[in-house]
Design brief:
Layout (H helix, E strand, L loop, with lengths): L1 H11 L8 H17 L6 H11 L4 H13 L3 H18 L16 H14 L3 H14 L4 H13 L3 H13 L5 H13 L3 H8 L8
Helix pairs in contact: 1-2, 2-3, 2-4, 3-4, 4-5, 5-6, 6-7, 6-8, 7-8, 8-9, 9-10, 10-11
């Protein structure tokens, strides 16, 4: 990532680079993505903020800003930018995209909703977390991480029955992995349903990897 970052930053110093708006935004997006992967989230903020002045509805840059805030545990700010992403998607939905970024977030509705839900969960705001995670599951019913995050919300509130129901939904969607079957077994044991718990535990080896 160091090479990608250094080359990108050098390109941004080229004369008249900002006169080619699409090229400029593409470079910023690539550099910010590399910075996030290199765990340098704090360096994303100035680059993205400046580029968003040029294109406030740029979904890739909004996504990068939100990711940077998540990486620095600034969950309220992350939610703000994820919500900006959703609003930008509404404004651009159905319209042709002139510029294809190397990191394209246009179709990540389920990911954004899941991330919003997780941010609320990290802040202990479970009602909002559940609401957004349910939306994430609707947007991406085969996205297992959304089911896991939602189940964890209920577990942290000691609502084992609802946590069990959520994980069983992932089984019905044929997206469950070994951890889901293991967790279902433990949850059902805690609720006294040892027979059903055993059935799930026996499926761990046959689960999707």
């Amino acid at each position: 990532y160091d090479r990608a970052i250094s080359q990108g930053l050098a390109a941004l110093q080229m004369p008249n680079v900002r006169s080619r708006i699409g090229y400029y935004l593409m470079i910023v997006n690539d550099v910010c993505h590399s910075m996030l992967l290199a765990q340098r989230a704090h360096k994303v903020f100035p680059l993205c903020s400046e580029a968003l002045k040029v294109d406030p509805l740029n979904m890739d840059l909004l996504f990068a800003m939100a990711g940077a805030y998540v990486s620095t545990d600034a969950y309220k700010n992350a939610i703000i930018y994820y919500q900006k992403w959703l609003k930008a998607k509404q404004k651009t939905d159905g319209k042709p995209i002139d510029l294809v970024m190397s990191v394209d977030t246009y179709s990540l509705d389920a990911v954004v909703l899941e991330n919003i839900g997780k941010c609320y969960k990290y802040m202990g705001q479970y009602d909002f977390a559940v609401k957004n995670l349910e939306k994430a599951i609707v947007a991406g019913p085969d996205r297992l991480s959304s089911y896991k995050a939602l189940a964890l919300c209920y577990i942290e509130q000691n609502d084992l029955a609802k946590a069990t129901q959520v994980l069983e939904r992932s089984v019905s969607e044929n997206s469950a992995d070994g951890f889901v079957f293991y967790k279902l077994g433990l949850l059902l044991q805690q609720q006294g349903d040892f027979s059903q718990a055993q059935k799930y535990l026996q499926q761990i080896g046959r689960a999707h990897v």
